[in-house]
Amino acid sequence: MINKIIMATNNKNKLRETRDILSPLGIEVISLSDAGIDVDPDETGETFEENATIKAQAVLELTDLPVIADDSGLCVEALGGRPGVHSARTYPEHEECAGLLEDMKDIPEGSRSAYFQCVIVYMDKNACIVFSGKCEGSIGFEQKGENGFGYDPVFMYEGRTLAEMSEDEKNSISHRGAALRDLYEYLKERNSEENADK
Length: 198
Fold this sequence. Notes:
The chain has one domain: Maf protein (Alpha-Beta Complex). α4 (167-173) crosses α5. The model has no long low-confidence stretch (mean pLDDT 94). The protein is built from five helices and seven strands, in the order βαβαβαββββαα. It has a seven-stranded mixed β-sheet with strand order 2-1-3-4-5-6-7. It has helices at 12-22, 48-60, 96-103, 167-173, 175-197, and strands at residues 4-7, 28-30, 67-76, 113-123, 128-139, 155-157, 160-161. The radius of gyration is 17 Å and the shape is globular. A hairpin with a 4-residue loop joins β4 and β5. By secondary structure, it is of the alpha/beta class.
């Protein structure tokens, strides 16, 4: 029976999204610091899945609890898919939106399509399962909204930025929300099977 999972992050926003979606299962999601784990592996992968797997493996070596790790990023078609797996490192922290808007200042409406991709890896001593989600939209021309983080204030979805949406709205359409809902179904089925075997 899975009742506690370590999420390989100390990012409060990611933890909140994950807890919101998994809480109906009665599974406690704790951060690295909650677990007393201090590890920061080099994310040397070429894909989101490789980076998420690197993080999950590094944490699993230090605990007996199941681990989930995610890697996600923004892929802009006019920039050849950048920033992609380097989304967190392409621009200075808190200047992601300004940097992206500057790089796209000459790209016209209609050529600004983009998508967020998220890959979540669930890992325990016996299993490694991969879940992924995607949110397709475009890059606006200015920052709007106060509720998001990272690139949310410039990512447009059906006329609004992700940062203009409530948490519930964002979770319902976001890349991480999609991957987490698949993880939710996996954990729900796994726990029900283990209960049935008792």
